[in-house]
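Running this now, will post back.
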Amino acid sequence: MVVSLLSGLTFKSLLDVLVYTGKSDEKNKAYWRYNHTGIHVRSWIYSDVWDPSSEGHKSVKQVRLIHKSVAQRIAKDLKKEDSDKWVSQSDLAFTLVGFVGSIVIVPEGFGVTESQDLNDYLFFWRVMGHLHGIKDEFNPFGGSVLSAKRTVYDMAQFCLLPSLLNPPEKFESMARAVSDNYGLLYPFIRYATDLALDNNGSYGESVDESYREVIAKLYPLDSKEGKKQLAVMKWTYQTAYKYTIFRLIFDFLANFHLELIKLRVRLATWWKNKTGRNSLLSL
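Update: finished.
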């Protein structure tokens, strides 16, 4: 998720919205903001989003209300009537691709085999895109698997890579706010770009191979920690994830972590209601 999230921050329209909200521009804020996102995503996966009483259904409604509210606030603050310009159909499509795009074009880079699993995975996210307000004609996963691969490939080669060469303002500071909770920034970027360039020309027009050298200079792995982090990521995603036992362990740890986050939120809310003061648990 971190690899995809950091890649998504290269899209200026998405970054502008995140900068405006001010919810993820510091390490601590980003930690809470994106762990809450993880809780939302988990509810979509593990509950019946079509059941109005389910956690997933309530989550989807909440997220849509948040998107609508943010778009209206930005339009009002900028004194522009058209709130559809913010959190637009293209923004929602970019966000959806950000969640799953890397796995779509390079499934082996995340331990996924080219099988029915990928078809099912795309179907799930196609439905989630629909539920979050993406019209069918703008849903990047509305067609075949090959069509989805070509769409994501084009976005990676002609949006992601050029944006990393000339990133939007605030990209690095916002990206570091996220990555500082999990490791160094540059290994995450290099993993994403290596995957894109290793599959150069696989699903569309090729880009200049000089991108690889330029990106290596812009986002160098000068330290032993950076090189080690990239090596661990490659082993985890490309080797360990192939085996069911490792996936079960990682899933358990991720779910346990999110349950702890939910518990901290409940305790912090209880403390604030009882005393009127913020709890250290909310830090």
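Residues 244-275 form the longest helix (32 residues). More later if anyone needs it.
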